């Protein structure tokens, strides 16, 4: 059977396992399964594993483990079966106050979709999203895919400050800003949920493979930012 | 109990250990020293484990009062160093008496130094590490650089310093450096001419450079197709190239993932040298074989092993 992945070196201290270059739940499941298999094997000399849309990097100490040996382990991990649906965690529901001061770009997304703001909210909240990866800042989960009608691209000019908890859209992706940072995504709402807290036993709320739903709740006046 | 009291913080002084490893899948950047070799060496010289927390100094060093007295060592960049006004040598442990003032003077070569103290800097770990990541504000002191008035408690020394030993100092840049690289991981996204340019051109570290990465000025590297890729993991030393063609050398505080193709990656043994570059310095890239990269790393590690001081018997730290 033809292999549907490749393993390449990235410098002398990391290996990259790559599947086909597209955003695809089936590919994402393979990446997550490979990471799990590698972690279970616990070879000496591994420093970290990073998960992305269609690839996984394993960072290692080249003096503690040879690249050839790690490649063999990675090949085996790449064939690991993906988790069955019932092994995956139940969907995480995120309450969101949409629009107004909480979602200053909701009008722009509505204009993009040629629909009312209420329709944007309805369409955003109607889907169950998949977490593909975390990156950018701790706890920022890249979720997909948004309804094409509301898949407005990133703002031409990013904001220098996006409030923590902002719920945002950029094309086919949606996500939550875990902390105040610069950001170019379209802000449609705000949540009080904290995607990342290093003091928590599980600091990161989201894991790759998680399913997420957004639930509109009533917003009163915008809260003072924390 | 002793402490290092910051009178003047210097240009950019941060607490670092060997980095916040193990959480990149959560989007947590590794941070850690720009010159990890000098960090390890300074710690070994004062009798610490290599991963103890120490101070990374950038270009302009701090002024520090040694409250309670300590054993210290400075490694990395060549910079003037005085204790109570008297010159102190680098790359060797020295004793600071209670109340002594440590000052850094003119920088001669290199860009970053490590000031290690016997016992390490005793601050709480975040996600298992005392490294500081400024952009995400993670780490000791709320994830910020040192400021005047900071009082850094020093831990209890675990081992004896390397008395009378001078450490094997890292060779520092002389206006610039040749950095060895392995091609990829996305060298197939570039034209043959781009790869030729990479190995023959001279780049300059621009002023738009920091702990996250160095923007390099020089000949553009041409993509064979789109400059955008699906975000994928980014290693320390990766040379990523956006649509502009201007390479970015990713450094200690890089984000965990990125959406630009990476034409080549600096070898681990040359990352400390890269960490000693300042804006205005030149870089030339040289493609080497994997075997040479591993051999160079083994040689560095052997040099550090040679410095391991005698420890009191007992389990390793």
How would you describe this structure to a colleague?
Chain A is 21% helix and 29% strand. By secondary structure, chain A is an alpha+beta fold. Chain A has a seven-stranded mixed β-barrel. In chain A, strands 1-2-4-3 form a four-stranded antiparallel beta sheet, covered by helices on one side. In chain A, strands 8-11 form a two-stranded antiparallel ribbon. With 317 residues, chain B is α+β, with helices and mostly antiparallel strands. Chain B has five helices and 18 strands. In chain B, a hairpin with a 7-residue loop joins β14 and β15.
Query: What profile does the largest beta sheet of chain A have?
Result: 7 strands, mixed, barrel
Largest interface: A-B, 43 and 42 residues
Question: Average pLDDT of chain B, to the nearest integer?
Answer: 94
Extended strand count of chain A: 13
The whole-angstrom Rg of chain B is 20 Å
Q: What overall geometry of chain B do the principal axes of the alpha carbons give?
A: globular
Number of helices of chain B: 5
- What is the terminal separation of chain B in angstroms? 20 Å
Structural class of chain A: alpha+beta
Order of helices and strands of chain B: EEHEEEEEEHEEHEEEEEEEHEH
Compute the average pLDDT of chain A.
Answer: 93
Number of contiguous helices of chain A? 4
- Strand portion of chain B: 25-35%
Please name the defining characteristics of this protein.
heterodimer, A: 226 residues, alpha+beta, seven-stranded mixed barrel, four-stranded antiparallel β-sheet, 4 helices, 13 strands, elongated, B: 317 residues, nine-stranded antiparallel β-sheet, seven-stranded mixed β-barrel, 5 helices, 18 strands, globular, disordered C terminus
């Amino acid at each position: 059977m033809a292999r549907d992945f490749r393993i390449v070196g990235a410098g002398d201290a990391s290996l990259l396992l790559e599947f086909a270059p597209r955003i695809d739940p089936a590919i994402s499941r393979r990446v997550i399964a490979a990471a799990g298999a590698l972690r279970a094997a616990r070879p000496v000399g591994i420093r970290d594993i990073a998960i992305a849309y269609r690839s996984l990097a394993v960072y290692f100490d080249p003096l503690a483990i040879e690249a050839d040996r790690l490649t063999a382990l990675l090949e085996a991990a790449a064939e690991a079966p993906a988790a069955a649906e019932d092994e995956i965690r139940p969907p995480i529901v995120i309450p969101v106050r949409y629009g107004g001061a909480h979602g200053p770009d909701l009008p722009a997304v509505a204009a993009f979709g040629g629909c009312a703001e209420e329709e944007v909210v309805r369409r955003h909240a109607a889907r169950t999203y998949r977490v593909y990866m975390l990156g950018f800042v701790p706890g920022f989960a890249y979720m997909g895919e948004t309804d094409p009608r509301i898949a407005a691209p990133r703002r031409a000019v990013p904001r220098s400050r996006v409030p923590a908890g902002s719920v945002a859209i950029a094309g086919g992706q949606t996500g939550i800003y875990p902390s105040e940072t610069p950001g170019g995504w379209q802000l449609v709402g705000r949540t009080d949920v904290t995607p990342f807290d290093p003091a928590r036993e599980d600091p990161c709320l989201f894991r790759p493979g998680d399913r997420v739903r957004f639930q509109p709740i009533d917003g009163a006046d915008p809260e003072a930012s924390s | 109990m002793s402490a290092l009291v910051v009178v003047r913080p210097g240009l950019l002084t941060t607490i670092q250990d060997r980095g916040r490893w193990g959480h990149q899948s959560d989007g947590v950047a590794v941070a850690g020293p720009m010159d990890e070799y000098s960090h390890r060496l300074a710690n070994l010289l004062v009798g610490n484990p290599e991963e103890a927390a120490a101070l990374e100094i950038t270009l302009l060093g701090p002024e520090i009062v040694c409250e309670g007295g300590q054993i210290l060592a400075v490694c990395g960049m060549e910079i003037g160093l005085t204790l109570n006004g008297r010159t102190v040598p680098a790359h060797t442990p020295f004793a600071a008496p209670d109340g002594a003032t440590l000052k850094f003077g003119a920088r001669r070569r290199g860009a970053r130094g490590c000031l290690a103290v016997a016992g390490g800097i005793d601050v709480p770990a975040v996600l298992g590490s005392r490294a500081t990541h400024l952009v995400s504000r993670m780490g000791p002191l709320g994830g910020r650089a040192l400021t005047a008035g900071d009082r850094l408690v020093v831990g209890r020394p675990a081992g004896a310093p390397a008395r009378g030993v001078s450490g094997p100092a890292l060779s520092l840049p002389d206006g610039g450096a040749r950095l060895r690289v392995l091609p990829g991981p996305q060298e197939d996204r570039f034209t043959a001419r781009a790869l030729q340019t990479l190995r023959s051109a001279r780049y300059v570290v621009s002023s738009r450079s920091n702990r996250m990465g160095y923007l390099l000025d020089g000949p553009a590297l041409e993509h064979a197709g789109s400059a955008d890729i699906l975000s994928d993991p980014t290693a320390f030393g990766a040379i990523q190239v956006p649509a502009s063609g201007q390479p970015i050398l990713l450094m200690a505080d890089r984000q965990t993932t990125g959406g630009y193709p990476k034409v080549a990656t600096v070898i681990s043994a040359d990352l400390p040298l890269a960490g000693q570059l300042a804006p205005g310095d030149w870089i030339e890239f040289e493609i080497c074989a994997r075997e040479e990269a591993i051999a160079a790393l083994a040689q560095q590690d052997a040099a550090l092993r040679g410095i391991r001081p005698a420890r009191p018997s007992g389990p390793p730290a």
